[in-house]
Write a structure and sequence with these properties.
4 strands, globular, mainly alpha
Length: 201
C-alpha cells in the first residue's frame, strides 16, 4: 500500500527542522554522558573523545548528521554531503518501507510525510522497543490500529502522545508532535511548525 509515495517537501521540512544537522558525532541528549558533560560545562557537540573521568558513562545512541544513529561512534566527523546521503539512504531503506508495509489504508502525501517523519524519530517499534507503528512486543500501536481502521482523526490524536523521552515529557517533542499532527491533518509543514512552537512556548 502507498507504493507510489516517497517523502515529500513537508516531510523533509519536518525532519530537517527538528533534526538539526551536526557533522560531528554527539552523545544522545538524554544519556548519562551528555548530562554529565553539560554539568561539567563541556560542550557535548564538540567531543573528539570521551574525557577519562566520564568513560564509564553511556552516550548511546551516538548521533550524527540529520539524527542518524547507524554506525556512529565518538570522534566521528562527516561532511554535509555525507550527512545528506545518510539521511536519504535511511529514508529509502528503513523508514518509508516500514510505513508502506504497516499501513493498510491509503495515505495522501502529507499523511505519508507525517507518519514517515514520526517513524524517523521514534523508530518503527518492535524488538523490545516501542515505536509509533509497533510496540516493543511486536503488536500494533494504538496509532497504527486506528489508522488501519480508517480512523484518520483518531490516529492523528495519537501522535501528540509520543512526547516522552527517558520517561519524561520533553517540550521539544511536544512541539514536534503537534506540528506533525497538523501536517497529518493537511497543514503545510512551515505553518505547522509555527503552530507547534506557539502551542508549547
Amino acid at each position: 500500500m502507498n507504493e507510489h509515495l516517497t517523502t515529500g517537501a513537508d516531510g523533509h521540512e519536518l525532519n530537517h527542522y527538528y533534526e538539526a544537522c551536526k557533522l560531528r558525532a554527539y552523545p544522545d541528549p538524554l544519556s548519562p554522558l551528555f548530562k554529565a558533560l553539560q554539568s561539567a560545562r563541556i560542550d557535548p557537540y564538540k567531543l573528539t573523545e570521551v574525557p577519562a573521568q566520564f568513560a564509564s558513562l553511556s552516550g548511546k545512541p551516538w548521533t550524527i548528521g540529520w539524527g542518524d544513529t547507524e554506525g556512529v561512534s565518538v570522534g566521528m566527523v562527516i561532511s554535509q554531503a555525507e550527512a545528506d546521503a545518510r539521511y536519504a539512504k535511511r529514508l529509502a531503506r528503513d523508514f518509508e518501507p516500514a510505513v508502506r508495509a504497516a499501513v493498510d489504508v491509503e495515505l495522501n502525501q502529507r499523511q505519508f510525510d507525517a507518519v514517515v517523519s514520526t517513524v524517523y524519530n521514534t523508530g518503527r517499534g518492535g524488538g523490545g522497543r516501542d515505536g509509533i507503528l509497533f510496540l516493543g512486543g511486536g503488536g500494533p500501536s494504538t496509532f497504527l490500529r486506528k489508522l488501519n481502521l480508517g480512523d484518520y482523526a483518531g490516529a492523528a490524536a495519537e501522535i501528540p502522545k509520543w512526547n516522552r523521552a527517558g520517561g519524561q515529557v520533553v517540550k521539544g517533542l511536544q512541539r514536534r508532535r503537534e506540528a506533525t499532527r497538523l501536517v497529518f491533518l493537511g497543514m503545510d509543514a512551515r505553518s505547522a511548525i509555527v503552530s507547534g512552537e506557539a502551542k508549547f512556548p
